[in-house]
Amino acid sequence: MTTFPIEKIRADFPILKQKIRNKPLVYLDNAATCQKPQVVIDSISHLYMHEYANVHRGVHTLSMKATDRYEGAREKVKDFINASSTKEIIFVRGATEAINLIASTFAKANINKGDEILITAMEHHSNIVPWQMFCEQTGAVLKVAPINLQGELIYEQFEKLISDKTKLVSVVHMSNALGTINPVKKIIAAAKAKNIPVLLDGAQAIPHMSVDVQQLDCDFYVFSGHKLYAPAGIGVLYGKQALLEAMPPYQGGGDMIRKVTFEETEYNTLPYKFEAGTPSIADVVGLGAAIDYLVEIGMDNIAAYEAELLDYATEKASKIEGLRIIGEAKEKGAILSFVLDKIHPHDIGTMLDSLGIAIRAGHHCAMPVMDFFEVPATARASFAMYNTKEEIDVLMSGIEQLIEVFG
Question: Catalytic residue among 34, 135, 218, 365, which?
Answer without folding.
Answer: 365
